[in-house]
Every structure is written in C-alpha cells, then in structure tokens.
Amino acid sequence: MELEPLKLEIEAAVPGCRLEIIPNLGPSAQHSLLVDPEDGLAVAFYLRDAAEFDFCTNVTGVDWPPRELTEKIKIKQIVEGVEKDVDQIRKVQIPGYLEAVYHLYSIERRLGPLPLRMRTADRDSGTHLPSLTTVWRSAEFQEREVYDLYGIHFDGHPDLRRLLMWDSFVDYPMRRDYVEPDDYEYEPTAHDQVLARAKEHASKAGAL
Amino acid sequence: MSTTYAPVSEPITDSAPVTGRPAPRPATPVLSGPDLPEQYLELSMGPQHPSTHGVFRMNVVLDGEQVVKLKPVFGYLHRNHEKIAESESYLGNMPYTDRLDYICSITNNWAYALAVEKLGSIEVPERAEYIRVITGELTRLQNHACLLGFLLQDMGASGTPLMYAFREREKVLDLFESLTGARMMCNYLRFGGCRVDLPPGWLNRAKAFLADFPRFLDEFERLLVGNEILMERTQGVGVLSRELAISAAISGPMARASGLNYDIRKADGYSIYNRFSFRVPLGSHGDVYDRYMIRFLEMRESVKILDQAMRDIPDGPIQNPAVKARLFRPKPGEAYGRIESPKGELGFYLISDGSGIPYRYRVRPPSLINLTVLEDLCLGHNVADVIAVLGSVDIVMGEVDR
Description:
The complex is a heterodimer of chains A (208) and B (402).
Chain A: H1 4-13, E1 19-22, E2 32-35, H2 40-49, E3 55-64, E4 67-79, E5 82-94, E6 97-106, E7 111-119, E8 128-130, H3 139-150, E9 153-155, H4 190-207
Parallel strand pairs in A: 2-7, 8-9
Antiparallel strand pairs in A: 1-2, 3-6, 4-5, 6-7
Chain B: E1 40-45, E2 57-63, E3 66-73, H1 81-85, H2 94-98, H3 105-120, H4 126-154, H5 160-180, E4 189-190, E5 193-194, H6 202-224, H7 228-234, H8 242-247, H9 253-257, H10 264-267, H11 288-312, E6 333-341, E7 344-352, E8 360-364, H12 366-371, H13 374-378, H14 383-393, H15 397-401
Antiparallel strand pairs in B: 1-2, 2-3, 4-5, 6-7, 7-8
C-alpha cells in the first residue's frame, strides 16, 4: 500500500501533526505510519471517519530496548601531511522505547493492512500513550493486554487493568529484559533422589 | 463530531494497584461491596462451569434474573505463548500453534505459515495449496458441527445433538489421523507447503465422507432448525449490531450473522480461494439464532468448496524445495498475515531481526476479540441467556488466553 498520498492527506486535515512513514525492509512491503502520541487521537479519528479505516483488527506492543548501532564512515584526515580517507567506526546510541501497533483495514475499500504505530518516550516512567479505544472499540481489551504484558499506560482507557496475568503480578513479562522469578515451589521427587545418588556416585568415582 | 465509544458500564471490581516500573494508576470507582445497591446480586460464573467452554469466568451483576453488568475475566489458561515463541525457531513454533485453538489445529498452522511466507516471500506449490484448502475446509466442517452440538448441549438439549455432531467430527479426525499421524495436534503445514503428501486412497475416503456429509446436515436441520424451544430460546437474544461488529473488529461467522459481508477468503483472496465458486451467507438479525444458522449455511458452502478442490487437485510437489525450514532466516522486516479460520480472523504478526528466531510474534486471536462484546450482547437478558450467547460466540480458551 502506498502511504505517501495518505500521509499528505492526513497532514492537510490535521494541521501540525507529526507523521512519519516507517518503511518495511522485508518482502511483505507493509509500510507503517508512525504518529506522534500527541496527535494520535486526531489522526486515528481521521483514519476511521475520512479514510474509512474502520476495522482495527489487531493491537499489540513491541519492546525496543536501548540499542547501539555501529556504522563505518569514511572521514578525511591528514595523515603524515597527506589528506586520506580513513575508516572510522562510529557508535550511535538509540534509546529504548515501547511501541504500540494498530493494524487497520478498510472493509468498504478493501484496503489494508495499515500498521499505525505510536512510540513512548522511554521504557521506565514515560510509558504513556493515548488510548484509541474511543475510536475503535476493538482496542479496549487488546490495549489492556498490551498494558498487562508490556506496561504501556493508555491514557483515557475506560478500564485499564491487567488482562491475562493476575492482579498482584509485578513485572511486564513480554519485555525483552524480563527475568522469570526464581520462586517456583520446590517439590522433591523420586527423580531427585536418584539424581542425588548419581552425583554422590560420580564424586566417589572421580576420587578414585 | 465523530462518534466515540463509551463503555456500557463501569468496571465491577478493581484490581490491586500495579507496583511495576511505572507509577501506579489511580483506583477506578468500583461497584462492589458496600457500594452495590441492595437489590443487586454479584455472581461469579465460572471458571470451572461446564458451559463456559474451558476455564473462563464472568463477573455478573444481577437484578433478579436480569444481567445489569458483565465483566469477563481472562487468563486462567495463560502460558504466554508469544513469549515462548520468541525464544523458538520459526519452524519450532509450528507445533505450538496447534495448541492455540485445539479444535482447528490445521487452520492455525495455515495462518502461521501464511505470515511466515509473507515475511520470507515464499511460494507454495499448487498441490500444497489444494491440500491446504481441503484440510482447512474439513477443519471448518468439524468445528462448526462441534459448535452446534456444544451450543445445543449448553441450552439443555442434552446428549443427542452433541453426539450426532461428534459422530461427524470423528470421521474428520480419522481422516486427519491417517494423513498427519495425529487426531487433534496435526502440526501438518510447513512454510512453502505441507509436511507429507496424501496417502494412497485418502482422497477417495475423503470423497466418501463428503458425499455422506449433507445427509448429516439435512438430518440435523430437520431435527433442530425449526424446533420451537430452540427458536424461543435464541431468537432476539444477544443481538449484535453491524456497527458494533465493525467497531469491535468482530470477524468470522459472528460478524456475518450481523450482516457484515466480510469473509477474508473473498476479501483477501489468499491461497487459491478465488478459484472456487462459493457464497458468503449473511444474517440479518445478528441474534443467537442467526449465528447458529450461519454455521449451517457455511458448512453447505464448505462442502461446495471441498467438492471443487477434490475434483481439481493436481499432481506435483507438495513442498517448495528452496525453503530450508530448519535454517530459515528471513530478512529484517515485518508481516501481518491472516486467514479466515472457522472462528474468525486468525492473524499472525511477525517481526524479524534477521535471525532464526522471531523478534516479535503476535497472535491475533478471533476467540478473544469476538468475546469482548459479551457484555453488550448480554445486558438486559436473563442468566440462562448468557449461556446461549456465550455458546454462540464460539470460543476455545487455549486461544483466548494463549
């Protein structure tokens, strides 16, 4: 799907909105539209009402932890009095963020999928995004799931609670840096006893 | 001004404050305990009730027999399928998808294979496409037959309809067993084709099953379609409007029962569905009866597709030889692939970072999303109708909770 005309259309209808096309490098060519969280609601309403993307089928989160990109660049440097091209490795720090992705389809115009993305400021305290539940009802429970598993707080959501994990659960399990707690109940089994004896045997055998 | 969605009611119970990394959210008002008006009764239905199709719970507030509020509670079967999948290879995830909607494992395989094929731009040989259509439509037949049996069982038609439906399902499972080695967890499709070819004589057995199947439909229809008790229980109950169906992204037979002409087999034309002539049945009322009848009509259309597919299936390879399934490393990028599974739109969203393991793996579960309008369908109805409405949604908890 060509996004350039749609982007111009939205920019004309929602003045001052910050939009960006994120190209998809893979063969599926499903390019997505990145919208600034502040303009999220206005753009979503425009997409639903004017552009007829009325079917918001899938809402999900993606976690992008801080990354370091290394790239080789050539710079001109004077080496022993002669100007030369020298390879230099430059490291670029990309701060981490969480992303909410909405896959939109148009039932009448048979268009889609259009992935609409919003990014949070960071992964710690700035994980707030506007809720699009008022635009597409289907976002209600799926945003709850994203909140539950990724910890994105959707402002304006009517009932933002954990969906799949239990209420007293602390962390966000779908984040890349999530570590499983080591607090499973330990139950001795016959297998454990065999294993202990085998270990004992192995240590004796090693001593010989 | 554009219309906005507002929830039909406030939350029933409030969760414990969240103590994760971001600051806790302020508590929302609750209608529970001392705040609950005296004539109301708060009832927890499930999670172990037989009519909830697995471990599913509803918190219901009742005024006498009438439902005033209903909030579904999910997560009893949650094992974080997506997290597991993000540590497995692309091929290694195929058997896990069987366990999502364990009644229709082959369509789950298909949706996943389709998403991976989009991600890696993989061609599928013609014969494999036909086998996919045949096994997929057989899955649809047995899923719909089961659903009708379950629904009638839930409404008190004890035994007979369910046994009739399971008799037919058994025949399909036998076919699957001789083809894939497993009755339910088939793990049959691969990206770029299928795992094994049809064994000798399989197609003839499938044809014989198919020739018999309309007799089951006629029999079931004579027995139950015009049944007075059934009509009394289901007509006008749990009405879903077309507008709400679109806004809430309801898909599959449930959306079509509300008159929404949206069948992904027609809309996307994925695989080879544009070669077959079949119609998309639509309902006009969107009540439980329409959702029940849609399944009947869809089974008749599936029989038509199967007839054509079994007639036209060509010889040839069943697997694209260029695909190295075990060493599959797609280019960085992402893809969303979806199919019309028997329950609705089953989608897989994959992000690749160039390694052999998906960076992001998301299942778009039709059962969960069709279930999210449960409160809208049940408000104002009696407790007994909740069971009928839930039965007509067609859920499998393995897919809802993932």
